[in-house]
Amino acid sequence: MIHFRYHLISLAAVFIALGVGILLGGTAGHNWFTWGEKEVLANMSAKYDRALKSNQELKQEMNRLHLEVERNKEEVVHLMALRYADQLKGSKVYIWPESKGSLERITRLLQSVGVEVAALQEGSKPLDGLLLIYADKQPQWLSEWDKANHVLLVNQEPDSVAKQWALLESVQKLLTETRDAGEKS
Fold first, then answer.
1. Which partner from 28, 63, 108, 175 sits 20 to 30 angstroms from 181, CA to CA?
2. What is the DSSP string of 11-79?
3. Using one digit for the tens of pLDDT, what is the confidence trace for 91-111?
4. Rg (CA), the chain
């Protein structure tokens, strides 16, 4: 049989091992764990700061490019005014919209080159000037009008500089044809 002394020594050794394990696990391991945790947190914080800085730089660049685009649009409008001002200044254009949409962009474009813009009521007929119809298809009442060749159909609002330029070119061409036809008769 095993002596009681060996049982006592083995029991004491188990409690000592348990105490040493708790001591090492609670103090030494904790520092390593928090150090790794702090390192991961610091890395994430640095990445977040870099992302914020990059985001701010991109916003500044976007704002700068937006201002440059606006400035270029103003220059193009000025060039359009120079190009068409002599030929279109004093001309009259009537606008008839199919629906109650906003014609502000077309009106502003035409007025920027010196064209007098007036709204046309359905059924009334302009005596002088060009009729610009803002619709998908020609209205029924237009087929009864004898000056149907003085009409320009616009399907969609010119939202780009190229479309605005093309609209002014069409208006200028039609007004020139109208003037030439009036001088011949």
1. 108
2. HHHHHHHHHHHHHIIIIIHHHHHHHHHHHHHHHHHHHHHHHHHHHHHHHHHHHHHHHHHHHHHHHHHHH
3. 787 777 776 666 777 778 787
4. 40
Look up residue 169 and give its DSSP letter.
Answer: H
CA distances in angstroms from 129 to 115, 157, 177, listed in the order given: 10, 21, 12
Question: What residue ranges of the chain have pLDDT lower than 50?
Answer: none
User: Residue with structure tokens 């003085």?
Assistant: 150
Quote the DSSP letter at residue 152. Answer: E
| Pair of tokens at residue 109 | 């474009």
Instruction: Give the pLDDT score at 13.
Output: 94
User: Cα angle vertex 174, ends 171, 177, to 5°?
Assistant: 150
Q: Which of 134, 89, 133 is nearest to 111 (CA)?
A: 89
Per the CB < 8 A criterion, the answer to whether 68 and 107 are in contact is no
pLDDT at 139: 72
